[in-house]
Request: fold
Amino acid sequence: MPKKFLTLLLALCLLAALSACNAAQSELRFGTAGTGGNYYAYGNVLAQLLENQTDMAIDVKATAGSAANLRLLQQGFLQLAIAQSDTLQDASQGAGDFASGALSGYSAIAGLYTEACQIIVTGNSDINSIADLAGKRVSVGEEDSGVTRNAEQLLLSNGLTFDMLGEVKRLSFADSAAAMENGEIDAFFCTASAPTTAVTELAKTQDIRLLSLDERTIGQLLSLYDCYTECVIPADTYPRQTEAAQTIGVKAVLLASDTLDADTVQQITEILFTNAAAMQYATNFDTLPDLTTATSNLPISFHPGAAVYYAEQGYKVEVGGKGAISAVSASQDGQ
Reply:
């Protein structure tokens, strides 16, 4: 084989390899949660918008949820993810499930919406309060999910631990709903924006109820954990749900790896807000993403790219803070 031809062939092979590498690097992996929850639905809608309006390729990953997403972000397996604000706070402070060490390597893009802590039981169940879960078969969410942490705190507020339940299952929302439909569990915890797909589908086939938290429980949780807020799940949120449920909620937060460049994250942030109505329609959420919700009371600082977009809208946010902070809130210019 002529030397010039061999050299050209090697050069072409190298170019092809570099092109493949660049293509692989341009694909952003987006961590959500189980397929029956709102993270997965939200992530797919946002991914489609990003792919339609940019040259980004987004690979939406179903994961165990918030805690898993944060670890995968730190390890570099994910570039985008959604996580609960309370789990995010624990990770930044090295608390709770992250007592072995605080996590880093990612920053906030936006607070998205409130996720309600929902406790679902069958319509004819004798379970009327958290205390009644003692001795019952309960799904407390997948291992390494924010739901499990919420379940633990809600139970502790009523003097219960996982060991005091009759049987503990660690299932996704979809698997929890299927288990309840099959008579395998008596209740399950679900922290997500209401309505949640898995719960809606379950309610179409059998009567369900959502437990309300009493004032003492709500007050105790609000005083102990500053990421919680009081919220209401209105009646008729789900089929045949005749009564409103008083509960607490946390904020879902969109995150970006610190390895993503500012221009990319600015573009993601802009698309998120310029397509707010489409996001609301596609995800069936009651409220639109808004700048105040997006920039207030988050437990970590913002990605520089997101900060550029917010500055253009007149909002100043904290960027690149190291270590744990109690909350990050935006201030509008001139205020």
